[in-house]
Amino acid sequence: MTAAMAELWPFLVLITVGFLPNEIWRVFGLVLARGLNEDSEIVMWSRAVATATLAGVIAKLLLFSNGSLAAIPLSVRLGATAIGFLVFLVARRSVFAGVAAGEVLLLAGGYLFAN
Amino acid sequence: MPGTGPLPMTFQSATAAYLGGIRSAWTSVFLLVMAGTYIGLGALAHDFGLSALWLMLSTLFVWAAPAQVILISGIGTGAALLEVALAVTLSGIRLFPMVVALLPLVRDRDTRLRDLLLPTHFTSVSMWVESLRILPQLAAEHRLAFCNGLSTGYMGAAVIFGFVGYYLAAGLPPLLAATLLFLTPLSFLISTARNARIMMDKLALGLGLSLGALLTVMNVQFDLMWAGVGGGTLAYAIHRVREAMA
């Protein structure tokens, strides 16, 4: 690869692997915007698949963390996530409360048990 | 009076409606979620050695935080590009029904197709939730401008918070940088649970988490695709069976 190519490569990947595979669904929506309602079966299925895909990414990021998060032990990452989630449920489904609690626990656990 | 909701908003011109949209974005609760998400994404991009310019362009072009997480971590860990593209497209399926539901609200009789290109590209979770809540209260001729203003407001905030996370991650001690990186999985998990409306959504979340973890640990190829299609279809099937039995 030439130097210019190496520099442009991440942007090429951004367009082909990030932009196009994502944008195509918006364009489909624009083309087919008539005649589908929110409760139609295909819409329900696509929502379930999109949710499960995102959940898979979350699991991956938690189990195989990168960079400085990898220095925090797995047990601390999973524990902070579980307790943050519990706080979210208890605090009348407040996203802010859950995220704040999880972050504080990660910080404390990381401080005490960092590898 | 309970149940009447906020008063309808009125604007003098399209420009006023556009500015009203920006103001609405910057004063909504989603701005906090967006701050957390994009500060985390900025830290992630920095950690994987991508440039700040790349991060900004990915926000402008992809404009979907889940797809951006998949893209950044995929490029960063050197995953096969086909695999990353598949995972991105699976995460993007949800945009399709969202556009389908949004456009009838934005369009009136003499809206041209090219006027719908921007709201189509701007469609993403936070903008969509707010548009569906606010647009019905507006006069039809101002909805398009308001919607574009709302989206510009969110997108501008996302770009700024992305830079904040990127440069914070570069300068912070490792433990604090780790808490920034932790924002992405944690806030995604909790806000997805928050958005789960019916049992099917919760099932899809739980199955995706467990299948994703299992397949990743087993080092299965295309793990995200299987977790998404497998977990999502299973959740949908269980939902159908339960409905049929009810």
Count every beta strand of chain A, where a strand is a DSSP E run of 2 or more residues: 0
Distance between the termini of chain B: 37 Å
Tell me the structural class of chain A. Answer: mainly alpha
Please write the string of helix (H) and strand (E) elements of chain A.
HHHH
What is the gyration radius of chain A calculated from CA atoms?
20 Å
Main beta-sheet strand count, sense and barrel state of chain A: none
In terms of quaternary structure, what is this? heterodimer
Please, how many domains of chain B?
2
Helix content of chain B: over 70%
Helical content band of chain A: over 70%
Order of helices and strands of chain B: HHHHHHHHHHHH
What is the average per-residue confidence, as pLDDT of chain B, rounded to a whole number? 89
Rounded mean pLDDT score of chain A: 88
| Number of discrete helical segments of chain A | 4
The biggest beta sheet of chain B reads: none
Label the structural class of chain B. Answer: mainly alpha
Approximately how much beta-strand content do the residues of chain B carry? Answer: under 5%
Shape of chain B: globular
Keywords:
heterodimer, A: 115 residues, mainly alpha, 77% helix, B: 246 residues, 2 domains, 0% strand, disordered N terminus
Please characterize this protein's 3D structure.
The complex is a heterodimer of chains A (115) and B (246). Chain A has 4 helices and no strands. By secondary structure, chain A is mainly α. Chain A has a domain of 51 residues. The longest helix of chain A is centred in the N-terminal third of the chain and has 29 residues. The radius of gyration of chain A is 20 Å and the shape is flat. Chain B has 246 residues and is mainly alpha-helical. Chain B is globular and about 60 Å long.
Please provide a brief summary of the model.
The complex is a heterodimer of chains A (115) and B (246). With 115 residues, chain A is an all-alpha fold.
